[in-house]
Amino acid sequence: MKFGTKALHAGIEPDPGTGAIMTPIFQTSTYVQNGIGNHKGFEYSRTGNPTRQALEKNIAALENGNYGACFGSGLAAIDCVMKMLNPGDEVISTNDLYGGSYRIFKTIFEKYGIKFHFVDMTKPTRVEAVINENTKLIWIETPTNPMMNIIDIRSVVSLAKNRGILVAVDNTFATPFLQQPLDLGADIVMHSATKYLGGHSDVVMGALVVKDDNLASEIYRIQNSSGAVTGPMDSFLVLRGIKTLHLRMQRHCENGEAIAYFLKGEEKVDKVYWPGFEEHPNHHVAREQMSGFGGMISFTLKGNKVEDAKQLVASTKVFSLAESLGGVESLIGHPATMTHASIPKEEREKAGVVDSLIRLSVGVEDVEDLKLDLEQALNAF
């Protein structure tokens, strides 16, 4: 079954009671049993809900996985993965990381005795240099947030497999339409379903997908025990969003490419970070493990003045100044003061998150309007 067909049909059946083609919203907390232990597969909605279950099966199919689990947010999904670890375990992650991921690692799990190493993962040798007998998990973002760095998933997996180390990939930026980490050897895929999977900026949700039976059992145990599940209405909204994921991603990619080249030609723009450029670091890896380069772009301004960046993001009219990404509408943000403010300034700047860095989530509007909007904003300072 091809991707577009999966998006519409995988894990989804017409309602047996009514024939409804759309998965019903099972807005219920509990389920009547015919006798003790004699039920129709559902007991309590924290443990399982038919709407959520349909979504979990759908997302798993899109990632070519066997099991999916949905959570109240992307960070709740990350929280689940971290709870598989024990005090004394060590985690390797990229030094260019979403601020919320960094925050949960450093301020929540580090105090429970888990040690984190943040390294430049664009070269696998740097990952190998910090692996030791306590390393239990390698956490990858690719493309990274916000520098769009590309990490070679296969190469990292080759370092981990013979050492019994789990590899998890945050696939939020690429989506399963552009990249399928499980097929590259990863053990766990994580999504902030808030972003491209939902696609309409109307829901907050996270998801995990795995192939392995034992990993799935542990994820479901933690999901049920910790209770950070998503509700049926949100599950319905993401199911609806996924039905157009392939169509939206095609437009995101087309618009993203056009905006990337537009910015590259602007006099006030210094560097443009987009994996589709041949000179982008690890562009060859992106070509091999991705089917397109997405709609996320970051760029810096000449002079690196935070005042210029703030003026620009305040001047756009089609691009909305907001956190988040992946919706149909275009968004603009200033990572240093918004999405990555929780990372210390020195660490941010080492990874390239300087004061003038601006991140774009290029939406599906008419691209000429997006260019005109950025042009007038660049002329505002």
Written account of the structure:
By secondary structure, the chain is α/β, with parallel strands linked by helices. The chain has a domain at about 245-380: Alpha-Beta Complex (Aspartate Aminotransferase, domain 1), CATH 3.90.1150. Helix content is about 35%, strand content about 15%. It has 14 helices and twelve strands. The chain has helices spanning about 5-10, 50-60, 75-80, 100-110, 125-130, 155-160, 175-180, 215-225, 230-240, 245-265, 285-290, 305-315, 345-350, 365-380; strands at about 65-70, 90-95, 115-120, 135-140, 165-170, 190, 205-210, 270-275, 295-300, 320, 330-335, 360. A seven-stranded mixed sheet has the order 1-7-6-5-4-2-3, sandwiched between helices. Strands 8-9-12-11-10 form a five-stranded mixed sheet. Strand 5 (about 165-170), helix 7 (about 175-180) and strand 6 (about 190) form a beta-alpha-beta unit. It is globular and about 70 Å long.
What would you say about this model in short?
With about 375 residues, this protein is of the alpha/beta class. The protein has 14 helices and twelve strands.
